[in-house]
Design goal:
The complex is a heterodimer of chains A (about 270) and B (about 70). Helix content of chain A is about 70%, strand content about 0%. Chain A is mostly helical and about 270 residues long. Chain A is globular, with a radius of gyration of 23 Å. By secondary structure, chain B is mainly alpha-helical. Chain B is built from three helices and no strands. The chains are: A mainly alpha (about 270), B mainly alpha (about 70). Chain B: Belongs to the ATPase C chain family.
Chain lengths: ~270, ~70
């Protein structure tokens, strides 16, 4: 920790009168850094646009000069593509229809991955998906996609029956099961998709802010005992950063996996 | 000292998914130990279970800050 960094962290953590202010949801309200004709642009908005540029640039560069013996970049691109296609799309959707959905799943995976990893990139250090508004469109597109796929495969009423009536059940128990299945398969899914990604990014980033600002406040408190705890807090912050690296990948994987599972379930034949 | 009672509930709510996720991965590990070649199949199932168990807590995190 350099001597200039700690006062900067402290001034960010303190409310001005020298008292430590714990980070909360307001830590995520960043001030706008640019103003385009009355439209204020904040850091996460810029980061999301940048992520689109990164994803498009990476995929174009990786696939531009495709050769039989792949170069390094082409190999990396093919590894990610193969991972999404084989371990998610083909496993969950099945061999017949999966290729139609691979482009969407692949771009979804890369987009979420890049946006999540902003959280630990030095200087950027803000996971843009800790703002829930950016995830809602992804969940809505996924919702429309799997419902659309189901309607395409079974027809509107066929899909409704497919999604809400569990196989092998008959009689009055259906009165109980059909509303439950409708709620869980149609209504709740986009919410859990959104909240899972948002909650993980939000909680992870909050934890990192807490360890950094809290550690800095303890270190500069002037008390030796507090200082030791402050060092411990910085150490824990580093450990949590590694945990976050795992969680960020896992959340991108899980979002894509669930999207492909929902599509696969909507397309599945009657059982 | 001030704060929201919600956060105490958040801590309590973490117990359930914590136990659940532990059980899921314990089953995953013993499954792989018994049959190492089934790892690929078990992994995606384990992660799916982990995600579903975790969802409960994540919803609580969101609600703790919203309400």
């Amino acid at each position: 920790m350099s001597a200039t960094l700690i006062p900067a962290i402290i001034s960010a953590a303190e409310g001005g009168d020298g008292e430590f202010v714990p980070p909360g949801p307001s830590s995520f309200d960043l001030p706008p850094f640019a103003n385009l004709g009355g439209f204020e642009i904040t850091k996460p908005m810029g980061l999301v646009v940048l992520s689109a540029v990164i994803v498009i640039g990476f995929t174009v560069l990786a696939s531009r000069k495709a050769e039989v013996v792949p170069g390094r970049l082409q190999f990396a691109g093919e590894a990610v593509y193969g991972f999404v296609r084989n371990s998610m799309a083909r496993e969950s959707i099945g061999g017949e229809h999966f290729m139609k959905f691979v482009p969407y799943l692949f771009s979804l995976f890369l987009f979420i991955l890049v946006n999540n990893y902003y959280g630990i990139l030095p200087f950027l250090q803000f996971p843009s998906f800790s703002r829930i508004g950016f995830i809602v469109p992804l969940a809505i597109i996924t919702w429309l996609l799997y419902i659309g796929a189901g309607i395409y495969a079974h027809g509107p009423f066929g899909y409704l029956k497919h999604a809400t009536v569990p196989g092998g059940v008959s009689g009055p128990i259906l009165l109980l099961l059909v509303p439950l299945e409708f709620i869980s398969n149609i209504l709740v899914r986009p919410f859990t998709l959104t909240l899972r990604l948002f909650g993980n990014m939000f909680a992870g980033h909050l934890l990192l802010i807490l360890f950094a600002t809290g550690g800095a406040a303890l270190l500069t408190s002037g008390n030796i005992g507090y200082g030791v705890v402050g060092v411990l807090s910085f150490g824990l912050g580093i450990a949590v950063s590694f945990l976050e690296m795992l969680v960020m990948f896992l959340q991108a994987y899980v979002f894509t996996l669930l999207a492909s599972m929902y599509i696969g379930e909507a397309l599945a034949d009657e059982h | 000292m001030d704060g929201s009672l919600n956060l105490v509930g958040l801590g309590l709510a973490a117990i359930g998914p914590g136990v659940g996720i532990g059980l899921i991965f314990a089953a995953f590990i013993s499954g792989v130990a018994r049959q190492p070649e089934a790892r690929g199949n078990l992994q995606s199932i384990a992660i799916l279970g982990f995600v579903l168990a975790e969802a409960l807590f994540i919803i609580t995190v969101a609600l703790a800050f919203v309400l």
